[in-house]
UniProtKB/TrEMBL annotation:
Lineage: Eukaryota, Fungi, Dikarya, Ascomycota, Pezizomycotina
PROSITE patterns for the chain: GST_CTER, GST_NTER
Domain (GST N-terminal) ranges: 27-114
Keyword Transcription annotated: no
Residues of the signal peptide: none
Protein name per UniProt: Glutathione S-transferase
Similarity comment: Belongs to the GST superfamily.
A Pfam cross-reference name: GST_N_2
GO MF annotation, one: transferase activity
Keywords per UniProt: Transferase
Domain of life of the native organism: Eukaryota
Ranges for domain GST C-terminal: 124-269
Amino acid sequence: MAEVDISLPAHPTGAAAKLAEAHSALRPLRLYGGWFCPFVQRSWIVLHEKRIPHQYVEINPYKKASDFLALNPRGLVPTLAVPVDPSGGGKEQKPLYESSIICEYLNEEYADEGKHGRNLFPESGYERARCRLWIDHISKNIIPGFYKWIQHTPEKEYSIEEARQEFFKNVLTLVKEMNADNEEQGGGSWFLGDRFSMVDVMLAPWAMRLFLIEHYKPGGLGMPAEGQGGEDEKLWGRWRRWFGATTERKSVKETWSEDEYYVRAYKRYAEDTTQSEVGQATRKGKKLP
Ligand SMILES: N[C@@H](CCC(=O)N[C@@H](CS)C(=O)NCC(=O)O)C(=O)O
């Protein structure tokens, strides 16, 4: 069974292939990633947003090669190799892993706004904490709910409608916290209104993968279309704005392979036969790795 997981196409395609190619030269800062992985896409988006010089190395995390495990004993992508002494050529490297930690590290370490663009966290201490609170909600509730839904099969003790409603509830809880989208109140589509932030980065990869639920699951995604959201129409409208802006964001589009390859890669999730750690944890009702 595990063999199928390691038979994934070995390289990104489409826009992501171009980006990977443009970052294939040896560099002291190196991202080990898998094109299909949403956790990797988070780190990739930050590297792109902040114009951080780096090398992208495509690996298959299911193969657990010994040099990969030496860097990251958890054996998961993204894994970042950070130069011990960047000024000294960066031959020696130390590892970092966990997508949210990698993203925070990159944002802090490449802080020169002239070179790397705006900080992905706001200046106000309270607002920074509020961002982290909602990142926590994304990681603890929205993302596990995505896998619970996509891995739903008729044998489960929960129904597909329950999985859908739980996912919707968690999305709308986040949407309620999004800054208002009307001009008087600051405008803009992002979590913080007109400012793109780490909250947007943390959720974007799963927003991009919602089409897989539409593709694979009975009844599809079922998110209300414009005007169909009933008493939650205002919130769904805000969600649609965020979603539209996210799917059009350059850093999101350019870290995206061709749709058909995700369809192939997620078949095992949709059939609930994946042996990935995330998939197994979901099956057992455990916390995600
Ligand atoms: N909590 C980790 C999760 C990373 C993760 O699960 N990556 C998957 C690919 S999407 C992986 O490397 N899977 C290898 C495996 O399951 O054996 C993070 O945020 O970086």
